[in-house]
């Protein structure tokens, strides 16, 4: 049996819940063979309230990793935490040279628990080097606003306006993750293919154990595309996958609780409502 091959260009989360660790667990659950190209290593300080430290890897090491992975014949690729403009340009150029259609850009700008863009210049670099190459981008509300040069959306109508702006920047599809800040009674994400807006809704889970949800969602889409789904199908399944993962999130320690990446496999798919809006 030959597995589809998926590559994540992202950071390492030492706590195991997000970053390449979440991506690889998700790739495995979807039956793909996952590979990695590390951009940064993120550690957490247990003596300072789990504060994050970000250690960037040299760009020449990143290039060597990407070259290794692409030489095997990758079927789909995703990006996660890209810490500098040079790293973003490196990833974008490698994606362009690969000729891959299945490119998922998760425009990670902050670590969980932090509230500032890691490097403000990375926003412009993402717009220049990554968005035009994406089959789909998967920003959260804050990231969507930053990339669009607009205020952070907080309603479905505002999400639609931002999604249109993002689509005009080059990605063929956009899905904006609603999150807890969205003024809506369901856990809602908005998918836009340039023509139609589709709202994906699930019941909210009252939990703080959602570390890695964004990475998991994007990785699920990536694996689904590698396995032959069309983009909308890939997003719907990813919504099921991450909703189950959040519903069964668990406490790692007093600071963080990750999602359970195998929850859909173990407990089944939750109900998702799909509506054109």
The sequence of SSEs as H and E is EHEEHEHEHEHHEEEHHHE
Low-confidence stretches: none
Biggest sheet, spatial arrangement of strands: 3-2-1-4-5-6
- The shape, in one word, is globular
Nearest-angstrom radius of gyration?
17 Å
**In whole angstroms, how far apart are the ends?**
41 Å
How confident is the prediction overall: mean pLDDT?
95
What is the number of beta strands?
A: 10
Structural class: alpha/beta
**In CATH, what is the homologous superfamily?**
Ribokinase
The CATH topology turns out to be UDP-N-acetylmuramoyl-L-alanine:D-glutamate ligase
Number of domains: 1
Q: What is the helical fraction, as a range of percent?
A: 25-40%
List the total number of helices: 9
What is the CATH class?
A: Alpha Beta
**CATH architecture label:** 3-Layer(aba) Sandwich
Oligomer: single chain
Strand content: 15-25%
Major sheet details: 6 strands, mixed
Describe the structure.
This protein is of the alpha/beta class and 277 residues long. It has 9 helices and 10 strands. The model has no long low-confidence stretch (mean pLDDT 95). The chain has a single domain, classed as UDP-N-acetylmuramoyl-L-alanine:D-glutamate ligase, CATH 3.40.1190. Helices cover 37% and strands 21% of the residues. The relative contact order is 0.15. The strands form 2 sheets. Strands 3-2-1-4-5-6 form a 6-stranded mixed beta sheet, with helices on both faces. The protein has a 4-stranded antiparallel beta sheet with strand order 7-8-9-10, with helices on both faces. The protein is globular and about 45 Å long.
């Amino acid at each position: 049996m030959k597995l589809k091959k998926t590559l994540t260009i992202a950071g390492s989360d030492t706590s195991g819940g997000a970053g390449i660790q979440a991506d690889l667990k998700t790739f495995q659950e979807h039956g793909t063979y996952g590979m990695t190209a590390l951009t940064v290593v993120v550690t957490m300080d247990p003596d300072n309230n789990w504060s994050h430290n970000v250690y960037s890897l040299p760009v020449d090491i990143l290039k060597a990793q990407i070259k290794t992975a692409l030489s095997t014949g990758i079927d789909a690729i995703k990006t996660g935490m890209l810490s500098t403009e040079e790293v973003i340009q490196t990833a974008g150029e490698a994606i362009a040279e690969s000729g891959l259609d299945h490119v998922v850009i998760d425009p990670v700008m902050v670590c969980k628990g932090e509230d500032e863009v890691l490097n403000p210049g990375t926003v412009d670099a993402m717009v220049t080097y990554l968005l035009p190459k994406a089959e789909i981008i998967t920003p959260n509300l804050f990231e969507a606003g930053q990339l669009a040069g607009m205020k952070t959306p907080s309603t479905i109508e505002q999400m639609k306006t931002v999604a249109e702006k993002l689509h005009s920047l080059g990605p063929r599809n956009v899905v904006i993750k609603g999150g807890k800040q969205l003024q809506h009674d369901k856990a809602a994400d908005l998918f836009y293919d340039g023509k139609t807006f589709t709202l994906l809704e699930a019941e909210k889970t009252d939990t703080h154990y959602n570390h890695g949800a964004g990475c998991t969602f994007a990785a699920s889409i990536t694996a689904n595309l590698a396995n032959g789904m069309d983009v909308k199908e890939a997003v719907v399944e990813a919504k099921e996958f991450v909703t189950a993962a959040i519903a069964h999130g668990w406490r790692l320690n007093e600071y963080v609780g990750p999602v359970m990446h195998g929850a859909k496999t173990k407990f089944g798919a939750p109900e998702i409502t799909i509506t054109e809006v």
